[in-house]
Write a structure and sequence with these properties.
Shape: elongated
Helix content: over 70%
Radius of gyration: 19 Å
Order of helices and strands: HHH
């Protein structure tokens, strides 16, 4: 399904807003209801950015955990 131009504009703006102006996203709260394509896109872009950031945090934690586990393995073999 192809998205409308308004949805795409909203998505891109929402993504950028979440990335560069998270304080605006916090201030918006529940004021954006997603009643039109632009607002649906805006909410989708914000959600996409937040999910990417959460995934990156989890990946970073796993990397730290793997690193610690790997260094423990090296200590045992010495």
């Amino acid at each position: 399904m192809e998205q409308s131009q308004e949805y795409t504009k909203g998505f891109n703006n929402g993504y950028k807003m979440a990335k560069y102006k998270p304080e605006l996203v916090a201030q918006m709260g529940d004021s954006v209801k997603g009643v039109n394509d632009y607002e649906k896109g805006l909410l989708g872009g914000i959600k996409e950015y937040q999910q990417e950031q959460e995934k990156q945090r989890l990946d970073d934690l796993l990397d730290v955990r793997r690193s610690k586990s790997h260094s423990k393995d090296r200590d045992i073999t010495r």
